[in-house]
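Quick one, tokens below. Sequence please?
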């Protein structure tokens, strides 16, 4: 804990397991509008430069205040991430943006029984992204 801080936890970066790093980076960057941050190459033992080709088995992407780390690993992947936005209008705007880029939305935006306005989509590895807001933006 930082000696001058009442809070010890400063953030959370989920780590998704992915089957193919290049496919996942393209999907999150080109379809969902994330930016690729860093890429790590285990075989080379170092971070790769921005446009440097080479084997990358771990990487980080970000959009707004959300950061996600990917680790390439064979097998099935079924993690669920919940992405919060400020308003129902933002859920709708992301729906339009992402479907316009070819994202396959599993469940379009709707008011759920538990009171959230939410949509769901799957990434290339089957991970589920839930995007939601309170319907009134509170």
């Amino acid at each position: 804990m930082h000696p001058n801080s009442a809070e010890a936890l400063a953030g959370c970066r989920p780590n998704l397991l992915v089957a193919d790093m290049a496919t996942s980076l393209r999907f999150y960057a080109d379809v969902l509008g994330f930016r690729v941050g860093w890429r790590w190459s285990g075989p080379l033992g170092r971070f790769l430069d921005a446009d440097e080709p080479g084997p990358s088995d771990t990487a980080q992407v970000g959009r707004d205040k959300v950061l996600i780390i990917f680790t390439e690993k064979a097998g099935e992947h079924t993690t669920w991430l919940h992405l919060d936005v400020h308003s129902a209008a933002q859920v709708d705007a992301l729906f339009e943006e992402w479907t316009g880029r070819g994202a396959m939305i599993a469940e379009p935006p709707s008011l759920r029984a538990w009171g959230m306005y939410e949509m769901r989509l799957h990434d290339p590895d089957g991970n589920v992204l839930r995007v939601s807001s309170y319907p009134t933006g509170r």
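The beta strands are 15-18, 35-41, 46-48, 58-63, 66-72, 80-84, 105-111, 117-122, 128-133. The CA atoms of residues 21 and 124 lie 10 Å apart.
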